[in-house]
């Protein structure tokens, strides 16, 4: 499970191949929107939820999958990258659970992510 008390969560870079990690968990009518990966961990945005993968152990064969349905998002904040600071952030506030923060590096379309979350949580 995500450590919701932890203030930061990864430095994620777009990696569409990382979505293969959640293929077996998807529902029949669920599709992958985008995937992001840090050193070993990652996050996958689907048409119904956000799936966070926490790779554990030395070999990385043990994985923890946390599913965050869009319907549980009560508020979110997006910080886009600037001219010199290329990092961007997404903070999600969940009902009864708390906050989780994702940090992205490189060219991440925070506007597209924001629109997708809004379409499913409003």
Automatic annotation (TrEMBL):
Residues 14-120 form the Bacterial Pleckstrin homology domain. It holds the Pfam family bPH_1. InterPro entries: PHb, PHb_sf. It comes from the Bacteria. SUPFAM superfamilies: PH domain-like. PANTHER family: BHLH DOMAIN-CONTAINING PROTEIN (PTHR35796:SF3), HYPOTHETICAL CYTOSOLIC PROTEIN (PTHR35796). This is Bacterial Pleckstrin homology domain-containing protein. The lineage of its organism: Bacteria, Pseudomonadati, Pseudomonadota, Gammaproteobacteria, Alteromonadales.
